[in-house]
């Protein structure tokens, strides 16, 4: 089969590799229908994260079950499935606590799982899925192709935006600031609206992203950054927001989000921390803030969000402003890297 | 009247100053019955926090209302009152949100309030209380003197320990680690038990504090610190605690608390951050932790905790292992500074 392999900065190649095969009775093989490139794939593509040796890449996919091990019960051959960006057994203490991304056996597609196995990458034709029952969510019927884009967001960006909103305690009537206008930030706007936020301020300087944010439910857009951005937020909603959703992971965006909060406000942060930013304990302490964040355990959110996707209540698939073929994967990375696309979907 | 004035490191003096008088119709004058020395008073006493000019000190007191301004309705002359460590108007947006310590007009005893007035210190015979209705909590009847110690803890340490437990989401069945065996840490043990924690691990190396922690509800005591401390905690409760209560404010104690948590765990931190420790975003992110902390808005907790004190359900006054007269205030600071006393109560 063909699988995307990263060799180093700027160097992703679609290569022919061995077809994956069932290795354990709890495995399934999934034929990938749609995959995509994630903002976090760019850390390796840009060299921010080192690539010590070539490895498969990509962690978001939807597809059809091709084969199952003898112990798989939750999904069957031919089922259309959503695969969250992390593999999880569904039974360990961390999965039981809802933190699927800290599964004691699972891991991330393209890397080693905690049980020590190399996992396949999602930017490929097939993926072997260990712990299929704990990982895959099957759809009751085959979806229409025009829902693929939104279904694909449930593997990562929509679940991650939702996690930011959950960690930030967004509830009916909340005032919310969303920092970050990438796919996750835009999905966080959807999530905030879905959870009943009354006021949603999207921080964005890019016109197309601003209009998508408004379409998704942002009531206001603030283009300024830094102190001017905070001042504008406070002009709009007085003493600061109830909730801030940090969807970037940089020091400046974190400061922006924290400074936008009112005393007693909540920060949800889901941007993968880049350059190990630290949270200022003194600033948090003086305002009695609550902070929560992490690698979104999206497996736990798929069922809830899927209902809204299938009824058309939310349409997060609009974050894909570009669609390419799998063999254009190199071009897809370049489009994401240069921000000429918000997010590129790949047809397999 | 006599009031304690700090002049610089190691230099607190009981001095004769003008009696306070009603200055606004919302003021009350309270005759102090009991006050005490707080761990946070030691920041100034030790010079960690500079004393630019001599000022009154002390922020914990209970007493009797001596006089009220014309607009005070909640308390009357002769009422026995509990004064939280912060002055608050009870009506601004932050008070309405329950963050009384961020009141837009109030402030801390001994310092300037946000309205610009110098507030008196609590280690004194009388205190003028601006915004008396928003600040003081009156008791329905005169309490017995043997409850004074516990009532006095409601002004700060018991409310602060409770805040740590609330911010850490302690709930029935929780496993809890309490870092810090000062008066706040010991009160946090009481708070965790009161909120239904099933397992409470007190981190303490001091025998008398260990036994008080056990008396207050600690099921286990861990004397080790650092990696050994974390390993011992995990020996006791597997993958880590549901909740960690940080009651010190140092970098090491914060690391200890964070490392003791399971993925998805909650940290409540109430130790005044010393030396501006920072919270590691990467470590929080990788474990999906939730962090909350700050200057405890104890005004909002007094009524709830008072019920348990008056029925004898909790007895936090035991943290006072020493009682002195107000004119021994210098000796009280020395006892706290050398840790020869957990907390010293002052009879006025």
UniProtKB/TrEMBL annotation, chains A, B:
Its cofactor is Zn(2+). Pfam families: ADH_N (PF08240), ADH_zinc_N (PF00107). It comes from the Bacteria. Gene3D superfamilies: Medium-chain alcohol dehydrogenases, catalytic domain (3.90.180.10), NAD(P)-binding Rossmann-like Domain (3.40.50.720). GO terms for molecular function: oxidoreductase activity; zinc ion binding. Transmembrane segments: none annotated. CDD domains: FDH_like_ADH3. Residues 10-346 form the Enoyl reductase (ER) domain. Keywords: Metal-binding, Oxidoreductase, Zinc. InterPro entries: ADH-like_C, ADH-like_N, ADH_Zn_CS, ER, GroES-like_sf, NAD(P)-bd_dom_sf. The keyword Metal-binding applies. Belongs to the zinc-containing alcohol dehydrogenase family. PANTHER family: DEHYDROGENASE, ZINC-CONTAINING, PUTATIVE (AFU_ORTHOLOGUE AFUA_2G02810)-RELATED, ZINC-TYPE ALCOHOL DEHYDROGENASE-LIKE. This is Theronine dehydrogenase-like Zn-dependent dehydrogenase. It comes from Hoyosella subflava (strain DSM 45089 / JCM 17490 / NBRC 109087 / DQS3-9A1) (Amycolicicoccus subflavus). The lineage of its organism: Bacteria, Bacillati, Actinomycetota, Actinomycetes, Mycobacteriales.
């Amino acid at each position: 089969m063909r699988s995307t392999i990263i060799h180093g900065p700027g160097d992703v190649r679609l290569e022919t590799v061995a077809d994956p095969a069932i290795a354990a009775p709890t495995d399934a093989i999934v034929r990938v229908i749609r995959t995509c490139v994630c903002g976090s794939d760019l850390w390796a593509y840009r060299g921010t994260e080192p690539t010590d040796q070539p490895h498969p890449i990509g962690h978001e996919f939807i597809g059809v079950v091709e084969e199952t091990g003898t112990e798989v019960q939750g999904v069957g051959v031919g089922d259309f499935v959503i695969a969250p960006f992390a593999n999880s057994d569904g039974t360990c203490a961390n999965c039981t606590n809802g933190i699927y991304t800290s599964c004691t056996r699972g891991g991330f597609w393209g890397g080693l799982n905690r049980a020590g196995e190399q996992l396949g990458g999602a930017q490929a034709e097939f993926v072997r899925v260990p712990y299929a029952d704990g990982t895959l969510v099957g759809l009751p019927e085959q979806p229409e192709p025009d829902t693929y884009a939104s279904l694909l967001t449930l593997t990562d960006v929509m679940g991650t935006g939702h996690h930011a909103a959950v960690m930030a305690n967004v509830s009916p009537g909340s005032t919310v600031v969303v920092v970050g206008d990438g796919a996750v930030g835009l999905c966080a706007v959807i999530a905030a609206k879905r959870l009943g936020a009354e006021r949603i301020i999207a921080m964005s300087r890019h016109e197309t992203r601003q209009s998508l944010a408004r379409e998704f439910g942002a009531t206001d857009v603030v283009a300024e950054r830094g102190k001017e951005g905070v001042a504008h937020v406070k002009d709009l909603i007085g003493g600061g927001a109830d909730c801030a959703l940090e969807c970037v992971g940089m020091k400046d965006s974190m400061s922006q989000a924290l400074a936008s909060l009112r005393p007693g406000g909540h920060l949800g942060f889901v941007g993968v921390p880049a350059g190990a930013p630290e949270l200022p304990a003194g600033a948090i302490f003086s305002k009695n803030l609550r902070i929560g964040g992490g690698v979104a355990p999206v497996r736990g959110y798929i069922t809830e969000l899927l209902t809204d996707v299938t009824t058309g209540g939310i349409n997060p698939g609009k974050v894909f402003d570009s669609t390419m073929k799998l063999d254009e994967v190199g071009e897809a990375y370049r489009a994401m890297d240069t921000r000429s696309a918000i997010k590129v979907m790949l047809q397999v």
